[in-house]
Amino acid sequence: MTLHPILYKVTERIIARSRASRTAYLARMQAAREQGPARAHLSCSGQAHAYASAGPDQQALAQGGAGNLGIVTAYNDMLSAHSPFEQFPELIRQAVREVGGTAQVAGGVPAMCDGVTQGAPGMELSLFSRDLIAMSAGVALSHDVFDAAVFLGVCDKIVPGLVIAAQSFGHLPAVFLPAGPMTSGLANDEKAKVRQQFAAGEIGREELMAAEMAAYHGPGTCTFYGTANSNQMLMEFMGLHLPGASFVNPGTPLRAALTRAGAQRALAMSALGAEYTPVCRILDERAFVNGIVGLNATGGSTNHLIHLIAMARMGGIILDWLDFSEISEITPLVARVYPNGLADVNHFHAAGGLGYTIATLLDAGLLHPDTETVAGPGLHRYTQEAQLIDGELSWAAGAGHSLNESILRPASKPFQPSGGLKRLAGTLGTAVIKVSAVAPEHHVVEAPVRVFDDQEAVKLAFHNGELTGDVVVVVRFQGPRANGMPELHSLTPILSILQGRGQKVALVTDGRMSGASGKVPAAIHVCPEALEGGPIARLRDGDVLRVDARAGRLDIVSEGVLERAAAVADLSSHAVGIGRELFAVFRKAVSPATAGASVFGDATGASDGD
């Protein structure tokens, strides 16, 4: 199938925009490769330190002939998605020994759970944790004794941070090894109903807690399609997982077999062999375009309009929100997974999953088919399903059709013709919106604003009965420089109740909504942010805003707003406590959301181009 002309045009634009920074990045990666296996350059004392605790692998490491695999792990047993990683290092060591290699845990990275910190001060560290994870993984690999790496991570900021680090060490091959989703628990529509009942004061905390525990009940990723599972989708679309690896449940023989195979594959791609495939070759402009297509086709997380930009920039590739918006216009929505539907990721996987999704998009000319991947050249490999037959892992052709068209459809018969991610621009600034789950009658909202400086004030106004009539709820001073750009997901039940009462409702914020944003239109990531004096800081209660997802506009309707002085908020309470004082330098250095809300800035060699 011929590549769609818009996809070709956007890809060529990204290549042209990125030419200088990408060329400089690839030159650095080539220089790193030409230095050869790093262990050979270490002193005997340095090598002895590196191998001292390697046990049965010590001699193989000292002799220097075996490939050495670095394991970077985000294991902790507080995150259900990451608790299975406790068992992975020994499984990986055994697997690489079978092919004559060695493996060492290079280091661990922090991993926080946005589900725990929603609406709490810890959420203000969440976005910054992505760049801290990248730094931590960089420290882990800085010993420079590895020929390849595997990255163990699943959740919201962890995978983007690990990808940034993998790009920094882009001369090394890398395979990402997921843990898989937990088995299905309480149905998603029941969970949402209980949350709304609690927000409305119809039930107590005991009933809410029982429902939440029934939904999140065991090891593995949360089963809704938020940022964590969008991460897993991206790793397949971009070629960093083995095919079919994303949504296999933890603790199963197939999960273990995929982990073993991923470790062995990472070493097979090292410069010591004949299949050298470094990360810098896999993550090119086409791979990122494929990731954007996947995000739109599956109704994925809005957080990736920040993360993908930051991930790409470490490899010298410059993306902007217009790229996402134009790709969204031509990408059909082929999946309905909660909160965009009632199914969870286990149901999606059973219906044909990512293998079928990639196959139907390839057939429609909506993916670059010729990308490099950890499975070998060509994205067609990701249309296959992993199987375990008589204890042997193999791949076979997928079903070739959806097994449940209420969850997954062909590109020729989608749920809607576009992906639902849109860039908004207008007199209030630039923002993004996701409307894949928003009913068409809510795609345009023009209403008076109620202005708040934090989400707790919104909740108080709701409980006091103040949010009546059509309203645009503006929550400002939530940008990366103000307080780390927390998600405002805890507002979802309240806004859904207002909409359910027949009010026209929208959210406008310089913060993030969530990877699980749903049926209420939300113009998020507004730039310039309020702390920078953006127009959002000049709004007052009663001003009229127009949020227009159809035309891609975000406009102030009232006159005289831009002539006002910008409001100033007291953010001192956000500067300390729960570790926030440790991140003051991040708040000062962070780039705007349009540039990935990253603290790395020009260190990547990227610029905004033309």
From TrEMBL:
Its cofactor is [4Fe-4S] cluster. Keywords: 4Fe-4S, Carbohydrate metabolism, Gluconate utilization, Iron, Iron-sulfur, Lyase, Metal-binding. One of its GO terms (cellular component) is cytosol. Gene3D superfamilies: IlvD/EDD C-terminal domain-like (3.50.30.80). Residues 69-379 form the Dihydroxy-acid/6-phosphogluconate dehydratase N-terminal domain. Binds 1 [4Fe-4S] cluster. SUPFAM superfamilies: IlvD/EDD N-terminal domain-like (SSF143975), LeuD/IlvD-like (SSF52016). GO terms for biological process: D-gluconate metabolic process; Entner-Doudoroff pathway through 6-phosphogluconate. It catalyses: 6-phospho-D-gluconate = 2-dehydro-3-deoxy-6-phospho-D-gluconate + H2O. It holds the Pfam family ILVD_EDD_N. Belongs to the IlvD/Edd family. Catalyzes the dehydration of 6-phospho-D-gluconate to 2-dehydro-3-deoxy-6-phospho-D-gluconate. HAMAP family: Edd. NCBIfam families: edd. This is Phosphogluconate dehydratase. It comes from Antarcticimicrobium sediminis. The gene is edd.
